[in-house]
Each structure stands twice: as C-alpha cells, then as structure tokens.
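anyone seen this seq b4? input:
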Amino acid sequence: MDKEKAKLMVAGIVILVAAFGVVVLVFRNSANQVSYQPPAAAPAAVTPVNNAYLPGIPNTLPLEWSAKVLQNFQFKDPGTGKTQHTRVYISGKTIDADFFAFQKYLQTNGWTITATVDQPTSKELDATKDANRISITIVKDAKTNTVDVNVSYFD
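predicted toks r here
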C-alpha cells in the first residue's frame, strides 16, 4: 500500500468516526431537535448569508460567511443542558489556511486547545473556554478537491 492510499485510508477513518459521533448524538437527541427558523431580522452583529446564519455560533470566528452552506443545525442535549450549534460549509481557502486561521483565533481569544489533528487531508481542533466547547473539523475531499469545514460550538 503506497503512502497516498494509507493517507486516504486514515482520512476516511477519521471522517467515519466523526460522522458516527454526530449521528449518535443526533439520534440520541432527536426528540429535542430544534428546527432552525431564521429570525425576521438578524441581530446587528451577525450578517445573514444565503438567507441562513446560525445563532449561537460566535460571529467573531473566522468563518467564511459567504461560503456555500451544506448544513446549519442546532439541538439541545437534555442530559447536559448544552446546545450544539453546527455549521458545515465549503471553504474557498486551502485546508492549511483554514486550519491556521482557526488555530490562531483560538490561541488569541482565550481558548484552551485540548486536541489537534494535523494530517494533509484532515485537520481538527477541539478547544474549551469557560463552560463552552468548540470542535472544528476541516477535510479535503480528494474527489472534488474541495475543503469542507465543520464547526460545532457547544454552549
């Protein structure tokens, strides 16, 4: 098995594990799923994009607000009382540029980075600040050559 196939296999495993975790959380909390309804007017500090923004995600994060949004959702976990706010979008940046932008943001805004994955086609940052947690996964799709960014913020 050459190095490229091994890298793709590792990236695939990371993606499958992350996707399985999200599916488990969604199904476990499906009774508490909140359907997102955009407000009549967005708060002044948040810019609506593609007629959809996600309240709860800090608007200071280095998100690409004009990017094509693949998913926007939130749900409340009755066990912890925390709400998960998730946005998945196709980035216009490289995987490395996204990773370093989020890493710099977390480091300069008082977050404690608790886990990092830095592979050529898959990167992840997990961090905490006060009672909040954030998980950022950035994956380069080998077939489409696009970069997908998944930001999940827990408050």
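The chain is about 25% helix and 35% strand. Residues 3-37+59-154 form a domain with the TATA-Binding Protein fold (CATH 3.30.310). kinda curious what u guys think
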